[in-house]
Specification:
Layout: E1 4-13, E2 16-26, E3 31-35, H1 42-50, E4 57-62, E5 65-66, E6 77-80, H2 92-102, H3 107-121, H4 136-148, E7 154-158, H5 166-183, E8 186-191, H6 194-200, E9 203-208, E10 211-216, H7 218-223, H8 228-233, E11 240-246, E12 250-252, E13 255-257, H9 261-266, E14 274-279, E15 284-286, H10 290-293, E16 300-312, E17 316-323, E18 328-335, E19 345-351, E20 356-358, E21 365-367
Parallel strand pairs: 3-8, 3-9, 6-7, 7-8
Antiparallel strand pairs: 1-2, 1-4, 4-5, 9-10, 11-12, 11-14, 12-13, 14-20, 15-19, 16-17, 16-19, 17-18, 20-21
């Protein structure tokens, strides 16, 4: 097993910079997730670590070994792709053992390692089948098994669950986390799925336009996002953003939210100054909520909204609404038995202790401070 260290890694294609000055270290045995919108550079980072792309600048270490000029086949990393890349003419057993066969491993050892990995993945009964005879989930397990059987120093996983249906994706995600914990191999996982990032990672690297926005544990990034992009990207449903002007409190179009004293003490604000307010849907409730009515007065805020879409989700109902005079969107979570209609106007209550403040020009978080 080994750590992975990137030092000021940059990758350019003609006039485009895919990744820009990327620096981080994944400690031995940890599970890190690279996440961000399409085109943010996460797959390019993974391919650069694997040796499938060559860094334009910077240094890359696997363990203590500088691998900038080491060919991909000699880096002792195993990569699992989104499309699984199984050989269709080979059986599952042959697919699992192919990498070992190419390294001229003893046939008896290949058989032993293939059977052991197949048992751990629950695919022993599939060893004589070919990929076209497998379901998507089974193919995904074979692709993972082919990487595991090599016993590499590092696993690289590029959106390996994206082709699975929702239920199988949830089940396989849990299995993958258990498997990585049991094997203990350093793992770097790429996804655009915020739920996968939050549930799988020891640490998350949030990327946008080829640059790191924040690195931290899922809990830290959720509670203390470094900027508006991170705040709105992680979380489902995402954080609401409301443009506001400070006028002793916050003027949100034609409506008003008080400014908590604790916030005023930490953020320098002047009359007429613009801010972006952030609040997550779970910290907003309907005006008749008993929970919110029990909040201290200095933690309460209230706005009027108009319902645009109602999405029943079982235990919860997601209400997509707007501030009627400004057409500013606001998502609110209600109970599963909430009854309402499109066009209804509702009062919603904010827990102002959960308010975020962002600089509207830079997007940087002004409150709460890290």
């Amino acid at each position: 097993m080994a750590s992975v260290r990137l030092e000021r890694i940059t990758r350019k294609f003609s006039n485009t910079t895919a990744i820009d000055n990327i620096t981080f270290t994944v400690p031995d045995g940890e599970f890190w997730v690279l996440v961000g919108p399409s085109g943010c550079g996460k797959s390019t980072i993974l391919r650069t670590i694997a040796g499938l792309e060559t860094a334009t600048a910077g240094n890359l270490f696997v363990g203590d070994v500088l691998v900038n000029k080491v060919p991909a086949r000699q880096r002792d990393v195993a990569m699992v792709f989104q499309n699984y890349a199984l050989y269709p003419h080979m059986t599952v057993a042959q697919n699992l053992g192919f990498g070992l066969q190419m390294r001229k491993t003893d046939p008896a050892q290949i058989t032993e390692r293939v059977e052991k990995v197949a048992r751990s993945l629950g695919i022993s009964h599939l060893l004589e089948r070919k990929p076209k005879q497998l379901s998507g989930g089974q193919q995904q397990r074979v692709a993972l098994g082919r990487a595991i059987v090599r016993q590499p120093q590092v696993f690289l996983l590029d959106e390996p669950l994206s082709n699975l249906d929702t239920q199988l994706r949830d089940d396989t995600r849990a299995e993958l986390k258990q498997l990585q914990a049991a094997i203990g191999t350093t793992t770097i996982y790429v996804t655009h799925d915020r739920v996968e990032a939050m549930t799988l990672a020891d640490k998350i690297v949030v990327l946008e336009r080829g640059r790191i926005q924040q690195i931290g544990t899922p809990q830290t990034i959720y509670a203390r996002p470094a900027n508006r992009m991170v705040a709105t990207f992680l979380g489902s449903p995402p954080m609401n953003i409301l443009p506001a002007i400070y006028m002793g409190g916050f003027q949100v179009d034609e409506q008003f939210l008080p400014c908590p004293p604790s916030l005023r003490e930490q953020v320098s604000m002047s009359e007429g100054q613009s801010f972006d307010l952030g609040i997550r849907p779970e910290h907003i409730s309907l005006g008749d909520s008993q929970t919110f009515s029990e909040l201290p007065e200095n933690r309460q805020g209230e706005l009027m909204v108009e319902v645009r879409v109602v999405e029943p989700l079982g235990e919860k109902t997601l209400i997509r609404s707007i501030l009627p005079d400004a057409n500013i969107p606001l998502q609110v979570q209600a109970s599963g038995n909430w009854q309402g209609n499109v066009g209804d106007r509702l009062k919603v209550q904010f827990d102002l202790s959960q308010l975020f403040i962002f600089d509207p020009a830079t997007g940087e978080t002004l409150y709460p401070q890290s």
